[in-house]
């Protein structure tokens, strides 16, 4: 696998890019370099049919509450998609990390933390992983899988992985800056406005930790969103 630091994406500070070839695992690689490369490292596996990237974070609060960054990331991802979406196209979430467009599961977010990290201590790092299916390949007709799909089936033909990652990076910084300045409330409100299944409140931090250990949106056999 070849790795390179380059300017293939236009990312705001403090992000710095590591790219992998198509077969690379961005989520696993980000975890392997998190301690050495530090906060802002964005690992991108360059696939044309899937947006697959992971970001190294260094939180300033205990692990139990720091995991809520997945909600900030969800807001950022939804906003990055919304600017490219067809008019009135609904974008929402399955708690805590599944991403839906017009009801179809197209991707999701996951989170890793150091093995053995204490819930009440600040972890050395977190790794936020994101997968969004851009193009459905080798699958049956959408009518046979109405709740599973890709962005190409939802009218996002002009969106490519680079543009989605660039948009995410900027909206994610907005979310984190607002969280730091004003508290988590605004982040929570925006997420709940897009939450599926009539979610009116976020579950407690313990339930979030359990849900993130085995993401419901992820097919373990393929390492991609269910299809």
From TrEMBL:
Cytoplasm is among the record's keywords: no
Residue ranges annotated for the BPL/LPL catalytic domain, each copy included: 11-193
Keywords: Ligase
InterPro entries reported in the protein's UniProt record: aa-tRNA-synth_II/BPL/LPL, BPL_LPL_catalytic
TM annotation in the entry: none
GO molecular function terms attached to this record: ligase activity
Protein name according to UniProt: Biotin-(Acetyl-CoA carboxylase) ligase
Organism: Aurantimonas endophytica
Higher taxonomy: Bacteria, Pseudomonadati, Pseudomonadota, Alphaproteobacteria, Hyphomicrobiales
């Amino acid at each position: 696998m070849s790795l390179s630091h380059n300017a293939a994406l236009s990312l705001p500070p403090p992000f710095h890019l590591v790219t992998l070839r198509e077969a690379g695992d961005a989520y696993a690689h980000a975890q392997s370099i998190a301690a050495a490369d530090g906060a802002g490292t964005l690992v991108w596996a360059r696939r044309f049919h899937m947006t697959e990237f992971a970001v190294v974070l260094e939180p300033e609060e205990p692990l139990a509450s720091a995991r809520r960054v997945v909600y900030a990331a969800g807001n950022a991802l939804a906003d990055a998609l919304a600017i490219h979406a067809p008019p009135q196209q609904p974008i929402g979430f399955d708690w805590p990390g599944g991403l839906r467009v017009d009801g179809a599961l197209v991707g999701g977010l996951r989170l890793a933390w150091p093995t053995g990290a204490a819930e009440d201590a600040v972890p050395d790092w977190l790794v936020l992983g994101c997968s969004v299916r851009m193009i459905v390949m080798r699958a049956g007709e959408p009518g046979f899988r109405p709740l599973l799909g890709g962005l190409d089936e939802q009218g996002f033909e002009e969106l490519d992985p680079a543009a989605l990652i660039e948009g995410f990076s900027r909206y994610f910084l907005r979310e984190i800056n607002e969280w730091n300045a004003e508290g988590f409330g605004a982040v929570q409100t925006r997420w709940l406005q897009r939450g599926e299944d009539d979610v009116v409140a976020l579950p407690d931090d313990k339930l979030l930790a359990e849900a993130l250990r085995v993401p419901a949106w992820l097919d373990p056999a393929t390492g991609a969103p269910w299809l």
